[in-house]
């Protein structure tokens, strides 16, 4: 179950938007729903200047969910630091050469529902925080995992690159909310 929770964390930003969760390749447009109603979809708070950083996060997540590790890696800074479940991967090569394969396989078995996403930019750095629910089956039983993700994205001559990821998740108990 720990591995499910670990992967769930990643999935929230990775393919957390309803557009990605239902198989569409069209990323959501934050400016279309800055404060949507709860039933209208995820709650987004993304200023215009943060949209390019959010787009890098969405490209990374969509590529990973599709098993396209080269495309996912193109969104990572070579020295990215990834923290999850008490562990660390200290480069894009380390992540892509190991853990990413399991994350990609897991994402193909889960339905991801993005609940909230917020982002801010300060100079050449942006942070993107996402909260999601992952719906999957474990031993033939439905399981919901609450997942949170924070990504730091840095602007460079090569565009916006992800320099840090932190994933956290836990199995949802009855009555739990994000």
TrEMBL record:
Domain of life: Bacteria
InterPro entries assigned to the protein according to its UniProt record, in alphabetical order: NTF2-like_dom_sf, SnoaL-like
UniProt-listed Pfam families: SnoaL_3
Domain SnoaL-like: 55-168
Region described as Disordered: spans on this chain: 23-43
Endpoints of the signal sequence: 1-21
Keywords from the UniProt entry: Signal
Protein name: DUF4440 domain-containing protein
Source species: Arenimonas caeni
Lineage: Bacteria, Pseudomonadati, Pseudomonadota, Gammaproteobacteria, Lysobacterales
